[in-house]
Amino acid sequence: MNLFDIRNYQYTLPDELIAAKPLEQRDHSRLLVVNRKSRTWEHRRFNEIPEILDPGTVIVANNTKVIRARLLGEREGTGGKVEFFILRRVDSACWEGLMKTGARVVPGFQFKIPDREGGWVRAEVIRREESPAGVILTAKFSRDPVEADIGEVPLPPYIVAKRKEWGPGELETYNTVFGTQAGSVAAPTAGRHFTPELITRLKAGGMDWQELTLHVGIGTFKPVSASDVRDHVMHAEPVEISTKVAESMNASKRAGRTVLAVGTTTTRALEGRSAPGERGFELVPGVSDVNLFIHPGAGYEWKFTDAMITNFHLPGSTLIMMIASFIGDLRFTLGLYDEAVRERYRFYSYGDAMLILDR
Fold this sequence. Notes:
Order of helices and strands: EEHEEEEEEEEHHEHEHEHEHEEEEHHE
Strand order of the largest sheet: 2-1-19-18-14-3-12-13-17
Shape: globular
CATH topology of the largest domain: QueA-like
Largest sheet: 9 strands, mixed
Number of helices: 9
Strand content: 25-35%
């Protein structure tokens, strides 16, 4: 099998298995438990995780929080429809983002977004940049659009297409229960399965809970358009790991404890912020951009992640490529996806989960 051919990362998914709505109880999702060494699996429920994991396991989660990133408004003067999808804060009222509109957008382009009091938040494009991820625009707003709370929940297109409408509490539902650091445009959905009660049970069972921050941007959800996956360029995303967390995690790693990454974003943060130390790879604290693209065939040496929780990802995505690299066998990985389809698992952001163990 050619590990660089994008066609080999496809699988067949019936449309009815794409989860358009979340379960009423987050931790009642199904869980495909995979032992990557023995190439075996079993079907469980997510709330059984405290009984599945070994005592002493270090669970690392991404505490980012999704913002209302879709700004729907109109162009100044013409009234033409405009959508500005904010990606990254530059300063207090200046954001990088993507734009949909009928006109070519250059610096000086002005638009406005209705606020919740009947007024407008006005903006002007001040920079246009061609990047591997596409055209990135920087806009200066009259008020910070996140603080003004003028945007829409940036639900994935496959959810929008199936649902058409959602309630006022959708943002809270879409976010994790432990998300505190606002800045993402998509949820780290593997973390959605946890409840406060489940986290308490894990800690009581001898697990360690740690958090870092990776603000999810276009790098996570941008489709791979290249036929050869090696030609795909990841867009950078900001990662922050505190000194306290890095020191604790490094001590745990030296002690031989299992490091379980909650989701592909946490995994990318751990791997992207690992560096050779005196006794193996260590996490480096601080803030930096990470654009790590892990895929089969690249000879990637896994540094810090021993186990992973993940949802079921879109065909041909960088996320399914990371999972295949971590499992170590693309055919087996696709076989697991076929098994999940046969067993009628729910797929994608509001779907079920997979726990990959090093057993």
